[in-house]
Design brief:
Structural class: alpha+beta
Helix content: 40-55%
Shape: globular
CATH architecture: 3-Layer(aba) Sandwich
Strand order of the largest sheet: 1-2-3-4
CATH topology: Endonuclease, Chain A
Number of strands: 4
Order of helices and strands: HHEEEHEHH
Largest sheet: 4 strands, mixed
CATH class: Alpha Beta
Radius of gyration: 14 Å
Length: about 120
Amino acid sequence: MPNVPRPTRDRARSLRRAMSLPEVLLWQHLRRSPAGLSFRRQHPLGPYVLDFHCSSRGLAVEVDGAFHNFAGQAERDRARDAWLAGQGVTVMRVAAADVLADVVAVVAAVVAMAGGLPVRG
């Protein structure tokens, strides 16, 4: 990964070992390639680590816990999403509580979002 700084790659490895419960539940479904989509977990891209990334559709799925509701974090999330958009990545944010409540519905929403994006070559 030539454009990924080493600290970001190291952080991604660390995050793979310490995923939150909602991330683990969602990963159990996404790793089975729903609708033929391939996802990577805790994928480094530039200076960021994406919770889940489907490179064939340019989709990042971010699981947001309560921490993301704080004003300072919301601003950082907007800046991050803007940078990712500049890289051709669409960000889909899902609440951790939604994953815990109905992971199947969240997976269906992810598949629908990915299905609406063009295939990248």
